[in-house]
């Protein structure tokens, strides 16, 4: 339904409104970017949040909220480096300057075709549940557009080779990192006598490492207002940020333990009062039972003297019934 509305809107804009060529390319480019962003977010959210939801570490609602926040933060802080490679590395924009305005329009049309191809491909793959990368589609579209418009001379072979190497190396590096992390967690946490206690102790360390790595990347490759040119200083600042976050986690965990200990103490005091009340009720029921037993003995003795043994047995049955009733009342008092 959404795709049909987009196509209808495009046809109305192009054939009914008939704006200028530049305005048409801008309008269509914005629509293509929205479609690609929507499709890319729908396809990539499973990569970033699927494991957390599957492990019950996050609920689906929490994953959606956190995913939207940190996906946007990642695009703002770390997206510029990849954007430069895609926009200037794969295709050389200077190859289109010789034709003046026509060359600029040709380059803009090529970028629009790349957006449309990557958006449709990613959206269709998402609809069929296929995990793909929009970056792969964009790079492939750029190569195709460059070859069709200006030939192989307009392509930046160095950037293309670097991208291909990254495509091959990233799964290998990811597999090695995941395997190493699995071994560390299995040995340090699951191999301990009390895995839950050990995991709480190791939590600040893992938080420090994760925050430090992300901070170092942002400070070295992020936007200009956050970038630190000296790599050593950037690493030192990133590690400091990770340690600071770990200290915050430690303080939070200790305060949480203190609150739970206080609530446990209050609950223990309340339980002590209930036990005292139950003990008093139990003592009263025992005293009542003793008094009833004494009365039944006196009735049996008097009955024996009068020679009415059959009536004594009936009186004893009544006493037993009364004692049972008192025992039932004491049990209900204990339950309360």
What percent of residues are in strands?
under 5%
| Shape call | elongated
Radius of gyration of CA atoms, rounded to a whole number: 38 Å
Mean pLDDT reading: 74
Task: Give the count of helical stretches.
Answer: 9
What share of residues is helical? Answer: over 70%
Distance between the termini: 60 Å
Largest sheet: number of strands, sense, barrel closure: none
Which structural class fits the helix and strand makeup? mainly alpha
H/E element order: HHHHHHHHH
> What's the total count of β strands?
0
- pLDDT < 50 runs, ≥5 residues: 272-284, 295-323
What can you tell me about this protein's structure?
The structure is a single chain. The chain has 336 residues and is an all-alpha fold. The protein has a domain of 155 residues. 85% of the residues lie in helices and 0% in strands. The chain contains 9 helices and no strands. Helix 2 packs parallel to helix 4. The two termini are 60 Å apart. About 12% of the residues have low confidence.
What's this, in brief?
85% of the residues lie in helices and 0% in strands. With 336 residues, the protein is mainly α. The longest helix has 76 residues, at 231-306.
């Amino acid at each position: 339904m959404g795709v049909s509305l987009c196509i209808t809107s495009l046809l109305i804009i192009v054939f009914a409104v008939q704006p200028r060529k530049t305005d048409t390319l801008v309008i269509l480019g914005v629509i293509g970017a929205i479609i690609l962003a929507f499709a890319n977010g729908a396809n990539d959210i499973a990569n970033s949040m699927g494991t957390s939801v599957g492990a019950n570490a996050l609920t689906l609602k929490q994953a959606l909220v956190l995913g939207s926040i940190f996906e946007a933060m990642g695009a703002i802080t770390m997206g510029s480096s990849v954007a430069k490679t895609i926009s200037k590395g794969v295709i050389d924009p200077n190859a289109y300057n010789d034709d003046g305005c026509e060359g600029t329009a040709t380059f803009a049309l090529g970028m629009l075709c790349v957006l449309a191809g990557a958006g449709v491909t990613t959206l269709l793959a998402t609809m069929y549940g296929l995990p793909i990368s929009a970056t792969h589609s964009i790079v492939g579209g750029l190569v195709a557009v460059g070859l069709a418009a200006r030939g192989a001379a307009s392509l930046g072979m160095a950037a293309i080779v670097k991208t291909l190497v990254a495509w091959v190396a990233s799964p290998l590096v990811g597999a090695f990192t995941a395997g190493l992390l699995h071994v560390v967690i299995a040995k340090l946490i699951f191999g301990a006598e009390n895995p839950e206690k050990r995991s709480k102790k190791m939590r600040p360390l893992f938080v420090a490492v994760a925050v430090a790595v992300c901070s170092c990347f942002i400070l070295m490759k992020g936007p200009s207002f956050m970038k630190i040119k000296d790599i050593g200083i950037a690493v030192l600042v990133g590690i400091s940020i990770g340690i600071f976050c770990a200290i915050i986690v430690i303080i939070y965990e200790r305060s949480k333990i203190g609150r739970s200990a206080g609530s446990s103490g209050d609950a223990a005091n309340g339980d002590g009062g209930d036990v005292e009340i139950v003990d008093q009720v139990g003592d009263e029921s025992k005293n009542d039972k003793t008094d009833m037993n004494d009365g039944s003995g006196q009735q049996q003795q008097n009955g024996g003297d009068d020679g009415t043994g059959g009536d004594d047995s009936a009186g004893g049955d009544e006493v037993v019934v009364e004692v049972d009733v008192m025992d039932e009342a004491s049990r209900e008092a204990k339950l309360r």
